[in-house]
């Protein structure tokens, strides 16, 4: 198995070296980073986004930057709306703001919540200290742009998860692009949303303040959503390249849960919910949270800079499902990173190194669910977690065009579990690891790149895996480890922008989840050997002009081949949930008069496995969408968006089960119906 990884790495090295043979006019080595492109480059990107693309382009692997402009003229509510055009990222909507989230198959069986990827806002993790987390706390309207680091390319955060990292970067007074903003939206399913924002620069200070409120009755029964969010970002400059910043985010979210259905129900009566979800147990997820951080970015000289920060976060979760969950979270941490460049033996180099510390505890109370209210006490425990990551990576340019990369991270995490109902079930456990990384990065004078890397990833079990209901003590779930090889290319020519990566991950002990029965939360087990391999491709094509209209095609395609490798139980069966083929395409027509019209398609051409035994599938689907916007003047833009224009009935996501032919009938409600036809309208009014 390892020989195949080595062969792929050697092939990637040969590709990079061969690509360097053509006689391009080489610029001076010092100029190389300024012309590298990454992700979906747009020459009209604001400077903050261009600078971020240039910084991420130093990575010898798949990375992307999503500017807020790509979703600001649409009803963007959650991960599905903001990351839908990033290949390799599976963020399929279940209902409202809730999505199934996975990068390269990370946390593939999790029916809810996040595991296997680092989610953060301004570098501050949304994940808890044990690695688990929710994504409803992220407000896409207050983000200036989003950084996506796929797989082992998240080393800059110290992350060693299989999926990588997604970092939402908050707008500030200097880069928001407006002074005042009023945003109003409404449409199908009783949807209403409003946002007020203010941005300003006062001498050395800058300020950004945003408040938003959202309501939706929901397409399905028991899927009402209510949300209130506030963001504050205050910065202070101390000369060129030196700043200090305070950021605060608060959320008050009230969300009902419609629940999964049988396949027949999902395709024939998709708006229904089960009696258990409503009215009997009144399933929901209510979150109140607050997080604050103080961060500094300090340029020492022209070659060296340091950045870091401290943060604290609090969250309350009221979560009536088959049981009634009442949890209080407290998390705090600190991080620091130094970046530098110089020369060694006449060869240019750059390097970064850092440390990331996280600590948190959860007061975890569980009760019997008595019609949506707490009943008999079932659990009373404290879940403490602490984590350290120390990491570094360096690039050495052996020629003006070819860089060798080496790095790695050392990680340690501890779990300390106290059960107040039965002290015999108290437990603690530590895990540590080293995850090395090597790579190559080649680019020509025009910024076109070829990259390759081999990376180890390690993921320790979260409390959700260690303390599995109805067992009140630690289970024997162990960390999963993977070795991933990746090759790819990105760049642009006169009319084309491309971003392509091919990867293969061989995983030992992958943590997989499945439904036991509807009244017991998903169980977790370690598989023996599994393989995740695939292709991530994005292509933007500026087709040309038709009269006064400029025409551009944007396409993303993801091939995901995830399977067991000679497993004792499942043989070489495919892993469920993530579709093998997934395509998104958009044809945008833009006029000089401020119009933009874009039909789009979302296509899953093949059926999707639901169970590990490969006995049941969910049908593939095709959904057509259409968006249009008009910039009336410098301060006013109106937009309209139609989704699922054909009112197609389809399954948008599934919940993994073991063997569909053998599980209880109650466990076959594993299908989440996609939303029906919808229309949303909105306006943005900005002032300078």
**Straight-line N-to-C gap:** 59 Å
Please bin the fraction of helical residues.
under 10%
Question: Unreliable stretches, pLDDT < 50, 5 or more residues?
Answer: 1-44
Largest sheet: 22 strands, antiparallel, barrel
Strand content: over 45%
The overall pLDDT average reads 88
In brief, what are we looking at here?
Helices cover 8% and strands 55% of the residues.
Mind explaining what this structure looks like?
The chain is mostly beta strands and about 700 residues long. A hairpin with a 2-residue loop joins strand 4 (about 115-120) and strand 5. The chain is globular and about 65 Å long. The protein starts with a helix and ends with a strand. The model is unreliable at about 1-45 (pLDDT under 50).
Helices and strands in order:
Blueprint: H1 2-19, H2 32-35, H3 47-56, E1 63-67, H4 79-83, E2 89-95, E3 98-103, E4 117-121, E5 124-125, E6 143-150, E7 164-170, E8 180-187, E9 191-202, E10 205-216, E11 225-237, E12 242-256, H5 263-268, H6 276-280, E13 284-299, E14 304-320, E15 323-344, E16 347-370, E17 373-397, E18 402-419, E19 427-443, E20 449-459, H7 463-466, E21 480-492, E22 496-508, E23 511-514, E24 523-526, E25 529-546, E26 549-564, E27 581-591, E28 595-604, E29 608-609, E30 617-618, E31 621-631, E32 636-643, E33 651-654, E34 671-673, E35 678-687
Parallel strand pairs: 4-7
Antiparallel strand pairs: 1-6, 2-3, 4-5, 6-7, 8-9, 8-35, 9-10, 10-11, 11-12, 12-13, 13-14, 14-15, 15-16, 16-17, 17-18, 18-19, 19-20, 20-21, 21-22, 22-25, 23-24, 25-26, 26-27, 27-28, 28-31, 29-30, 31-32, 32-35, 33-34
């Amino acid at each position: 198995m390892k020989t195949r990884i080595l062969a792929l790495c050697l092939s990637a090295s040969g590709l990079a070296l061969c690509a360097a043979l053509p006689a391009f006019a080489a610029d001076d080595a010092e100029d190389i980073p300024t012309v590298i492109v990454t992700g979906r480059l747009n020459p009209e990107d604001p400077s903050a986004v261009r600078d971020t693309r240039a910084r991420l382009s130093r990575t010898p692997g798949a990375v992307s930057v999503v500017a807020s402009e790509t979703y600001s003229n649409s009803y963007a509510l959650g991960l599905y709306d903001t990351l839908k055009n990033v290949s390799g990222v599976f963020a399929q909507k279940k209902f409202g703001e809730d999505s199934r989230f996975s990068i390269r198959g990370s946390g593939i069986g999790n029916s809810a919540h996040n595991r296997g990827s680092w989610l953060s806002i301004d570098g501050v993790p949304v994940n808890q200290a044990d690695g688990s987390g929710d994504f409803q706390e992220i407000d896409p309207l207050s983000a200036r742009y989003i950084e996506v680091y796929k797989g082992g390319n998240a080393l800059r955060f110290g992350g060693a998860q299989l999926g990588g990292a997604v970092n939402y970067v908050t707008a500030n007074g200097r880069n928001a692009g407006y002074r005042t903003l009023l945003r109003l939206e409404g449409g199908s399913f009783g949807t209403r949303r409003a946002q007020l924002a203010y941005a300003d620069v006062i001498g050395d200070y800058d300020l950004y303040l945003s408040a938003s409120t959202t309501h939706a009755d929901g397409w399905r029964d028991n899927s009402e959503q209510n949300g209130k969010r506030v963001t504050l970002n205050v910065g202070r400059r101390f000369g060129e390249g030196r700043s200090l910043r305070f950021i605060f985010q608060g959320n008050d979210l009230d969300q009902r849960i419609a629940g999964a259905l049988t396949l027949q129900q999902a395709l024939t009566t998709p708006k229904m919910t089960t009696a258990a979800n409503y009215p009997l147990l009144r399933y929901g997820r209510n979150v109140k949270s607050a997080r604050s951080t103080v961060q500094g970015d300090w340029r020492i000289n022209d070659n060296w800079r340091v950045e870091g920060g401290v943060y604290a976060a609090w969250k309350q979760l009221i979560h009536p499902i088959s049981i009634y969950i009442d949890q209080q979270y407290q998390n705090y941490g600190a991080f620091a990173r130094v970046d530098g460049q110089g020369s060694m033996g006449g060869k240019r180099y750059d390097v970064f190194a850092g440390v990331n510390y996280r600590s948190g505890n959860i007061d975890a109370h569980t009760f019997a669910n008595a019609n949506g209210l707490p009943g008999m006490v079932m659990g009373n425990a404290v879940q403490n977690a602490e984590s350290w990551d120390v990491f570094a990576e360096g690039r050495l340019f052996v020629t003006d065009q070819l860089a060798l990369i080496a790095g790695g991270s050392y990680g340690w995490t501890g779990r300390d579990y106290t059960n107040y109902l039965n002290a015999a079930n108290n437990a603690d456990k530590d895990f540590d690891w080293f995850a090395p990384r090597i790579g190559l990065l080649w680019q020509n004078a025009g910024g076109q790149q070829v990259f390759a890397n081999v990376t180890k990833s390690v993921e320790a079990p979260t409390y959700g895996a260690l303390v599995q209901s109805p067992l009140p003590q630690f289970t024997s779930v162990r960390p999963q480890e993977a070795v991933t090889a990746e090759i790819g290319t990105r760049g642009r020519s006169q009319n084309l922008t491309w971003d392509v990566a091919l990867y293969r991950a061989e995983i030992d002990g992958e943590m997989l989840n499945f439904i036991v029965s509807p009244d017991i939360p998903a169980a977790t087990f370690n598989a023996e050997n599994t393989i995740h391999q695939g292709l991530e491709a994005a292509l933007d094509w500026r087709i040309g002009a038709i009269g006064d209209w400029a025409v551009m095609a944007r396409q993303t395609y993801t091939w995901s081949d995830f399977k067991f490798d000679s497993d004792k139980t499942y043989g070489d069966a495919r892993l469920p949930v993530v579709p093998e083929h997934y395509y998104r395409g958009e044809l945008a027509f833009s006029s000089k008069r401020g119009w933009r019209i874009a039909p789009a398609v979302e296509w899953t051409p093949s059926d999707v496995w639901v169970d590990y035994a490969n006995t049941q599938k969910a049908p593939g689907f095709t959904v057509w969408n259409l968006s249009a916007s008009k910039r009336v003047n410098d301060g006013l833009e109106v937009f309209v968006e139609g989704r699922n224009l054909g009112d197609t009935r389809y399954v948008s996501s599934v919940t993994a089960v073991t063997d569909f032919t053998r599980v209880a009938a109650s466990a076959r409600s594993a299908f989440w119906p996609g939303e029906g036809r919808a229309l949303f309208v909105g306006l943005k009014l900005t002032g300078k």
